[in-house]
Design brief:
This protein is mainly alpha-helical. It has one domain. It contains two helices and no strands. Helix 1 runs antiparallel to helix 2. The longest helix has 121 residues.
Length: 160
Amino acid sequence: MLPLSSAAAAIAYLALSFFLVAVGLALGYALFRLGGMLGRASSLIGGVEQELVPVINKAGGSIDRVNDQLDKLDVVTDSAVDAVESVDTVLRAIAGVVKLPAQKLAAWTAGLLHGLTALRVERDLSAAMAAARFAARERERSFGEEFETEADEGKNESEE
């Protein structure tokens, strides 16, 4: 029985060796292909690095130039805001100067119209004068309130 078992063992060793050689060849081929793929990947990464780094540098330069222009625009907008604030100050000063004469003129006109109307209706000069004085005082007071309200609204709008 010994020769038969040794023949079976020899066949098993032969099959095992054939299998190991086949596995070795398959692994060798796979590693050879993997090496080629890694070489191509390395070449691709090197090419991307060579092409992408200058693009990134150019983009960085462009961003720096845009930032410089934005800084200049910031100065321009600050100057525009200062100019608008100056105009606002001047207009408020002019409004303050014009307010009193306009208020007096409005009061005088309202008093004159009410006085003439009262004189025509009642035919009494003292009643017409009283109506004129009352209308003038009321118009002067309401003009001041209107002016202050409009000034406050303009101030609120300019703050927004």
